[in-house]
């Protein structure tokens, strides 16, 4: 008869920061995740995870349907919201430098039930983001192959609902990156750093070359007149566009997932988070300005808007280079998302929220192989079978929900753990975390109603799994 009180007690149990840090230090000394990453590695992980499908795929849709030439303003709004959240991530990652990211922060502030909910939401963010990027990768890869006369059968070229039976390239790239992530984190980070450098160089090339060919008249009016519906151009369109291109900023928080594998996390994690956001935002705004200055915004509703813009310049071979850059960018974004989800699963299994098998580390590489393989297989299946439109909407709202909890965690921990060392602290007291919460809520309001319904349905499914599976493990999920 005392089941309900015990259950309620376990659900409300918070995991003290001291316990989290002690467990991390103990595992590091024995068989935990290897600390081999530098600040530069973290910046590259953040940039690699951030600059992907957002800049190469969604920019055209956002300009053509919502923001018009004011697309750069949408990126600035989304960048401000991300910057506020990024500062909160930096404070938490430096204070709690362990695997788990938002899941771990929520466990320390709101208890085990809230931690499960956010962990389930992070599946929506990371795994679905990886699927979305893989589908975008497939589109660019097939376009590049077509330039050389190579084409897949239609049944293997896209998901059901888009004229095919299975998106084979999307599944293939997901599986290949999963194999890379089964190696030591340092090896994956080195490959990621090389690809990020190439990607940034190609994007800068587009900006420099494109700037010499822009037509300023295409920027007028900067904010097209509203069509009469919320989000259809006008300033509401700028807001709706910000909600859509917010997908472009998803990925920088992967840096916080890597904090447990960083040599000096108290210093390197804030540098990685803030550095990745600054680099990404500057590149996004520059690309948006050049893109809308090369092509009339209503003509940008295509799957490869940057390639279309390059075609207007008329430089032979440059379009091919852009497609290669897009493939590299999408590869690093998918790699970062898969990496982040694998570490989330590892952290949840370590806390007995998931089966213990997901917390096992390979003795040679000290990477969570089983967790990574499981995520890779599920992500490959989703990428092969689900259209990109549904995936993108789910990822955006799921991430915004997670970001609100990150900002809230900063406020709660300042009240409940005031003496805890904070190597980095968000400036301005509590003002910026509160602004971060409202900024994310504003972007969520700008998303369509059916996206909200999908979020509620996803969280409801997560709760059903938690209570269906977790009754036997609720006591073990509490602080030992």
Automatic annotation (TrEMBL):
Q: Transport as a keyword?
A: yes
Q: Where in the cell is it found?
A: Membrane
Gene field: yhdG_1
Q: How does it sit in the membrane?
A: Multi-pass membrane protein
Task: Report the main location listed first in the record.
Answer: membrane
What are the transmembrane regions?
A: 38-59, 71-96, 102-119, 126-145, 165-182, 194-212, 232-252, 273-297, 317-340, 370-388, 394-414, 426-446, 452-470
Q: Which organism is it from?
A: Methylobacterium thuringiense
Gene3D superfamilies reported in the protein's UniProt record = Amino acid/polyamine transporter I
What is this protein called in UniProt?
Amino acid permease YhdG
> Entry's InterPro entries?
AA/rel_permease1 (IPR002293)
Keywords attached to this entry: Membrane, Transmembrane, Transmembrane helix, Transport
């Amino acid at each position: 008869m005392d089941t309900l009180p015990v259950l309620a007690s376990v659900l409300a149990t918070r995991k003290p920061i001291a316990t989290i840090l002690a467990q991390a230090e103990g595992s590091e000394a024995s068989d935990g995740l290897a600390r081999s990453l530098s600040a530069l590695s973290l910046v590259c992980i953040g940039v690699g995870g951030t600059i992907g499908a957002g800049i190469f795929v969604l920019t055209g849709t956002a300009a053509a349907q919502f923001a018009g030439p004011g697309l750069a303003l949408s990126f600035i709004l989304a960048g401000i919201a991300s910057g506020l959240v990024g500062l909160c991530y930096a404070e938490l990652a430096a204070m709690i430098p362990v695997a788990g990211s938002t899941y771990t922060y929520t466990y320390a502030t709101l208890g085990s039930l809230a931690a499960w909910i956010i962990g389930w939401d992070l599946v929506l963010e990371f795994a679905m983001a990886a699927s979305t990027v893989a589908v975008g990768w497939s589109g660019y890869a097939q376009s590049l192959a077509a330039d050389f006369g190579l084409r897949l059968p239609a049944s293997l070229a896209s998901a059901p609902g888009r004229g095919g039976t299975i998106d084979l390239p999307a599944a293939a790239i997901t599986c290949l990156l999963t194999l890379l992530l089964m190696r030591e984190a340092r090896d994956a980070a080195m490959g990621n750093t090389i690809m990020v450098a190439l990607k940034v160089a190609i994007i800068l090339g587009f900006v420099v070359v494109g700037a010499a060919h822009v037509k300023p008249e295409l920027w007028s009016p900067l904010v097209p007149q509203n069509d009469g519906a919320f989000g259809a151009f006008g300033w509401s369109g700028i807001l709706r566009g910000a909600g859509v291109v917010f997908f472009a900023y998803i990925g920088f928080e992967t840096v916080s997932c890597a904090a447990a594998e960083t040599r000096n996390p108290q210093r390197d994690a804030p540098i990685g988070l803030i550095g990745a956001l600054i680099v990404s935002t500057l590149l996004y705004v520059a690309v948006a300005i050049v893109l809308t200055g090369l092509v009339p915004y209503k003509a940008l509703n295509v799957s490869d808007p940057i390639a279309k813009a390059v075609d207007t310049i008329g430089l032979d071979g440059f379009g091919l280079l852009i497609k290669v850059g897009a493939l590299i960018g999408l590869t690093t974004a998918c790699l970062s998302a898969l990496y982040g989800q694998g570490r989330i699963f590892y952290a949840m299994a370590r806390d007995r929220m998931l089966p213990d098998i997901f917390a096992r580390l390979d003795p040679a590489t000290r990477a969570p192989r089983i967790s990574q393989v499981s995520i890779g297989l599920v992500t490959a299946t989703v990428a092969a079978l689900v259209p990109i439109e549904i995936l993108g909407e789910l990822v955006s709202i799921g991430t915004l929900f997670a970001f609100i909890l990150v900002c809230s965690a900063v406020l709660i921990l300042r009240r409940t753990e005031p003496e805890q060392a904070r190597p980095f602290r968000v400036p301005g007291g509590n003002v910026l975390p509160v602004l971060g919460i409202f900024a994310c809520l504003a972007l969520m309001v700008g998303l369509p109603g059916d996206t909200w319904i999908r979020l509620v349905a996803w969280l409801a499914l997560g709760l059903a799994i938690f209570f269906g599976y977790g009754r036997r493990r609720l006591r073990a999920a509490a602080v030992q």
